[in-house]
Amino acid sequence: MTQEKKRADIQMIQRILPHRYPFLLVDKVEEIDGTASAIGYKNVTMNEPHFQGHFPGTPIMPGVTIVEAMAQTAGVMVGVALDQMDRDMLIYFMSIDNCKFRRKVVPGDVLRMDLKTVRGKAGGKVWRFAGVATVDGEMAAEAEFMAMLDLPKDPA
Questions:
Q1: 128: part of which helix (H) or strand (E)?
Q2: 125 lies in which domain range?
Q3: Among 134, 143, 83, which residue's Cα sits nearest to residue 110?
Q4: Pairing mode of beta strands 28-33, 6-8
Q5: What amino acid positions are annotated as catalytic residues?
Q6: Is 113 in contact with 70 (CB distance < 8 Å)?
Q7: Is residue 113 included in any domain, yes or no?
Q8: What tens digit of pLDDT does each residue of 19-35 get?
Q9: Would 119 disulfide with which of 97, 128, 140, 145, CB 3.0-4.6 Å?
Q10: 63: how many CB neighbours lie within 10 A of its CB?
Q11: What are the φ and ψ backbone dihedral angles of 60, each rounded to 5 degrees?
C-alpha cells in the first residue's frame, strides 16, 4: 500500500518557513512524498519588488530567486515530512552546484519546481537536493544544492 502524498498551502508554508514578503517565494507545495520529492509552485507577478530594477521595461525574475524558490520548496517538503510546523526551523544554503538557466521567467508565469532529495534523513543536519524549475513544461533552471537544517531542540 502506498502512502498518500501530502500538500502544503500558503498557511502551512508560513508555519514551516521563516520567510515572509518580499522573500517568500513559494505559494504551494504538492505531491510531498515524505522527504523524497515534492512539487512547488510560484505565481510570478509584476508587483514583486525585484522587477523594479531587474530590468526596467523588461521584467525578468532573477536566477538567484528561482534557485531560492527551489530551496524553499525543499524546505517545505522536509518541514512537512518531519512535522516542523510552528517549530522555528531554519535552513541555510551550503552550496549550489551544476546550476543552469534555460529560459526567462517573467510576470504571468507559473514556476513549477520539481525537487528530489539526493541525500538526507530525519535527524540529519546536512541535506542535498536536486531541482528543476519549469514554465509551461519548458525548463527554466536546474540546480543541485546543499543545505543545513537547524531544527529546534525538543523541549525537555
A1: strand 126-135
A2: 6-150
A3: 134
A4: antiparallel
A5: 54
A6: yes
A7: yes
A8: 999 999 999 999 999 99
A9: 128
A10: 18
A11: -130, 130
